[in-house]
Amino acid sequence: GYIGKKVRLQRILRDGKAVIFAFDHGVEHGPADFPGETIDPRKILSKVVDVVDAIMLLPGMANLTHEVWAGKVPLIVKVTSKTSLRPEQEKLLQSPFGFVEDVVALGAEAVAATVYWGSNFEDQMLKMWFEVKREAERYGLPALQLSYPRGPAIKNMYDVEVVRYGVRAAIESGADLIKTYYTGSTESFRRVVEVAAGVPVLMSGGAKAKTLLDFLYVVKSVMDAGAQGVVVGRNIFQHENPRGAAKAIMAVVHEGYSPEEALKM
Ligand code: FBP
């Protein structure tokens, strides 16, 4: 095959690490996630596009905001989603939210898709994932898997054994980048990274932490565990200074700054 996938991956992971700004919450959580001026996607994106390594958007938003991001930062387009308006019993399923062709047409460097491992809809989600994967391979696009174990048999989705299972399943299904949950400690996250067999592991940010310093400790911990970076949404765009928050996270991931040093920047 051609080497496009490798070339594009290098644009995202320039020094082998990456901070990706996730901004797909408008569908998954709805407008309630965007307080104050963060309701204007162009405003929030313009504050971080020259700071982070990549941004992850849904297709419509990527198209709408191209004047803000194009030429400034690599784009990752997510092609699965769901609203939280759907019935409870169907919340463990995401639906197709665009095609790999759209991702290429948007000028993106990678495609992203969610898999809820262990959900009642695992079968459907895998069909979606492999469809994305097949197309992505044809175009030389890396595929980021949001590897989220969630389902009736999973008691604690942050449990290290559960997260490890999701990561193992992600590499077995051909993920080129894996986004998964923090397991609560450096030691346990080291075991998560170990199971990825060299495929880059990025921690999923989660709800806004009490303080930025608290969040930077988590970022530091996953980097100490050998992870390749983080995918962060709310801890950046819900912060009073999104640009400052993004810069501090970058300093911990790329420069190995301590959380305290990063905060002082
Ligand atoms: P956050 O850093 O805000 O958690 O963003 C990461 C993310 O995975 C988004 O890509 C996604 O929209 C959201 O979290 C989903 O959150 P959840 O499934 O936990 O409601």
Describe the structure.
The chain is α/β, with parallel strands linked by helices. It has a single domain, classed as TIM Barrel, CATH 3.20.20.70. It is built from 13 helices and ten strands. The protein has an eight-stranded parallel barrel, surrounded by five helices. A two-stranded antiparallel sheet has the order 4-5. Helix 9 links the parallel strand 8 and strand 9. Helix 8 packs parallel to helix 9 and helix 10 packs parallel to helix 12. The longest helix has 18 residues. The protein is globular. The chain starts with a helix and ends with a helix. The site of 1,6-di-O-phosphono-beta-D-fructofuranose (FBP) has 13 residues, from helix 2, strand 10 and helix 11.
Sum up the structure in keywords.
eight-stranded parallel barrel, alpha/beta, TIM Barrel, 265 residues, globular, 13 helices, two-stranded antiparallel ribbon, binds 1,6-di-O-phosphono-beta-D-fructofuranose
